[in-house]
Amino acid sequence: MRIIGLDPGSRITGVGIIDGERLVHAESVRLGDGPMPERLGRIFARLGVLIERFEPEIAAVESVFMSRNPQAAIKLGQARGAAICALVAAGLEVHEYAPRAIKQAIVGRGGAAKEQVQHMTRILLKLAETPAEDAADALAVALCHLHMAQTLARLPAGVVLR
Questions:
Q1: Longest dimension (CA), the chain
Q2: What number does CATH give the domain 2-154?
Q3: C-beta neighbour count of 129 within 10 angstroms
Q4: Spatial separation of the C-alpha atoms in residues 67 and 158, rounded to whole Å
Q5: Alpha-carbon radius of gyration of the chain
């Protein structure tokens, strides 16, 4: 299963694409400090290029966490919106995961530090080098979805998780 994972941000958006537990592509899309509409357009356009090039089958996105700064939360929500629109426009099914659930799935602790997520992403994907922070977060989102899909596939028919 080829999965595109996203860690949306208003300055940097992490993108990670995996095929099973094999790295296909990872990058940090640097958006700079320009006007917000331009940054949102760059997210949408770059994801369109990556989706066309790598042909993921499904998408996973980190959900919004509550911020103490309302302006930061609004900008993050806008970045997520641009990313989700690009995914949906490409016909991908989108799954969302909370940051704590992603860390739990990858590190085993919902409160894990970013360095731990980077380390475990490198280990799980058998990478020679540690990926950049935002790319590692996006790869962790994709791995979280992979692990969830594998778990659900092993459940007997008719079992519903709540």
A1: 51
A2: 3.30.420.10
A3: 6
A4: 38
A5: 15
List, in order, residues 6 or more apart from 11 with CB less than 8 Å away. 30, 31, 32, 33, 39
Q: Hey, what are 34's tokens? A: 């320009």
Do residues 21 and 2 lie in contact, with contact meaning Cβ atoms separated by under 8 Å? no
Q: What is the Cα–Cα distance from 21 to 142, expressed in whole angstroms? A: 10
pTM for this model (two decimals)? 0.92
The catalytic site residues sit at 7, 62, 134
pLDDT value at residue 159: 67
pLDDT confidence band for 149 (50 / 70 / 90): confident
The domain segmentation of the chain, as residue ranges, is 2-154
Are the C-beta atoms of 20 and 153 separated by less than 8 Å?
no
